Amino acid sequence: QVQLVESGGGLVQAGGSLRLSCAASTSIFSINAMAWYRQAPGEQRELVAQISRGGNTNYADSVKGRFTISRDNAKNMVYLQMNSLKPDDTAVYYCNAPFGPSDTLYSWGQGTQVTVSS
To answer: What is the mean pLDDT of the chain?
Structure first.
């Protein structure tokens, strides 16, 4: 079973930066899309950023201009650089491969907690 391991979260003040990493236990070279999601307390999980195999990216409006997603297919890694963090960015962040309008290819990992203080 494929495992996704997220890391890099932590506590940061508003305006600060964090870089999240996601390590996949399988090759992601042939996976068209990889993405970062987040889930805040009491909220549904939402897609934050997505990157295609060719490097095309899409972002939720709430993070556009502040977050940057990237992938290293050779290392089976996906990254999320988060700048100008806001308290509303506080959530558990997960990576996965989108499949269809609302599914994912893999089971969810444990995620990494990001907490932004005001």
So the answer is: 96
